[in-house]
Each structure stands twice: as C-alpha cells, then as structure tokens.
Predict the 3D structure of the following.
Amino acid sequence: MRRREFITILVGATAAWPLGARAQQPERTRRVGMLMNVAAESSEAQPRLIAFKQALQKLGWNDGGNWGANDSDRDRKYASELVAIAPDVILAAGTLGVAALQKVTRTLPIVFCNVADPVGAGFVDSLARPGGNVTGFSLFEYSISAKWVELLKEIMPGLTRLAVLRDPVNPGGIAQFGVIQATAQSLGAELRPISAYSMKRRSSAPLQHSQANRMAVSS
C-alpha cells in the first residue's frame, strides 16, 4: 500500500482509563483515532507506529485497522470518516491532517504532533493557552528561519534578491515565511516567493524568472 496519509483506529479495553470513568460506563469501548501524514509502510512511519502501538498494547488496547489517502480531497474524506466513528480522542500528525480534522469537528479532542505553526495555522489561540478542542506539540522555532537569511547574507554580502520556495496551501508555513520576510527586509534584500506547485509544473522556470541571488526553502 503506497499512500501518503492514512487513518488508524485503535480500539481498546476500558482498563486503560481512569477508575471513575470505568465505574460510570463499565461496558463502553474506548476509541483513539490516528491520522498521520506519511504512508504506513514508509521508513519514517514504521518506528512511530511500532512505538505507539506497543505503548497502547501495554494498556490492553488493540489495533483495529487503517485506511489511506493520497490527496487533499481524500484527506477531507477520511477525516470526516474518522470523526463519524466518534473516537474519544484523535491523534493527528502533520498540519494538513489537523486542518482537515478541524473542518469537520470542533468538539472531539485532537492532539497534534509534527505541526510547524499551530498558532499561524489557526489550530490554537496560543501555545500557552490553546483553547478550543485542539492541543499538541509544535516542532519548529521560527528564529531559525531568520538565521537562514542571515547566513545567506554572510555568504553573499551583495545579496539583493532572495527567492523563497514554499507551499502556499500549507498553513504551517505562514509564520515561517513571515520571519523570513521580515529578516530579508531588515537586511535590504527583496523577497520573491515561489510556489512549489509552479516549480513542479514548469520545472525551474519560475526560479529563473525571479532573478534571485539565492534561494531558501520553507514549509
């Protein structure tokens, strides 16, 4: 199975949950939904899945299967399908998966990981006080993006134009691009964003037309 995204439904025994919950609903089966942004058989996904499943198995939980997706339409389809199952909580990896889930539920608890900019993407109000039904872990410190531009300036003191190859559809790159933009302006360099989609369709033509001295790549 070669698919970019998949959903795993993990169905488990109530033994993993607090005594109070078990006393109130002794027969209820708890469900954890998992939406990832990499294929199940990929070398990147396998260690994560193994560790996650092993931890749940220690608590008496079982793996209930998985479904795949390989484009944005299917992302939304499987996010809707996952929410329709009504799990108790959803673990989502990646910005696009969280975005798809948030469009179909504002009540089910969602815990995210591997999200570059949860605030800029609109998933949470702030890292300290996320609010709503979404919380999780950010994986990026945006001051690093400023360092990229500063290093390019050190390498090429005469830098006047900087091309940034980015994915305009991915909300995870909003804050990152903002930092690059502000840093380039402070160093007197003109910033020229280039869509990764246009590069894919027309090879390197957009980059050549930008007449940039250097290029940075963002989310």
Observations:
- The beta strands are 5-12, 30-36, 61-69, 89-93, 110-115, 134-138, 161-166, 190-195, 214-217.
